[in-house]
Amino acid sequence: MKFFVDTADVEEIRDLAATGLVDGITTNPSLVAKSGRKFADVIAEICSIVPGPVSAEVTATDYDTMLKEGRFLRGIADNVAVKVPLTRDGLKACRTLTSEDTMVNVTLCFSPAQAILAAKAGATFLSPFVGRLDDIGQEGMELIGDICEIFANYDSFGTEVLVASTRHPMHVVDAARMGADIVTVPPAVLRKMYDHPLTEKGLKAFLDDWAKTGQSIL
Ligand code: G3P
How would residue 86 be classed by pLDDT, with cut points 50, 70 and 90? Predict the structure, then answer.
């Protein structure tokens, strides 16, 4: 399973990339707005920190302008994955951009039917949003189970399932159980994954006992 981090905060990315656990980055217009920086500058900087795919989202809604924006974003760095919404124009743009060897992340997927269309359109990554389904009282992870099951039936579907809108470590664990290819996590969720009270308690006990020996390893 690959870990992407869902943020446009360059300092967070630098810090988390140092763990060696970050395989890619996802951003969206809301995250870029939060960063308060110029879009192209942020994407260029992120791409220089993380060698894996960095998703940068178009903001046009019509095919022609999406293509222009997608080609511009792709020109920023080789590891840019152009993010397009799961709409008719978005999937048409996906098809054209992938035929030009550009990675495409199809975002805002909320149903298995949409997922099938994205795979047929040749998406490199498909982003189903689990947290936002949970928010409206649906079981977000059921969507991931359905998509993984469907994609496993067809070798011709090369699309990777990128679980997005994750809100807590159990989303990651459930996604791994279901065999999802990638999860993208906000920095806070990635940090929470390290935590367990018994780890803290056990470490404290080991170090207290070690102190009693008066020894040091080095
Ligand atoms: O990558 C998509 C993700 O950022 C959406 O997350 O928490 O805004 O639903 P959220």
Answer: very high
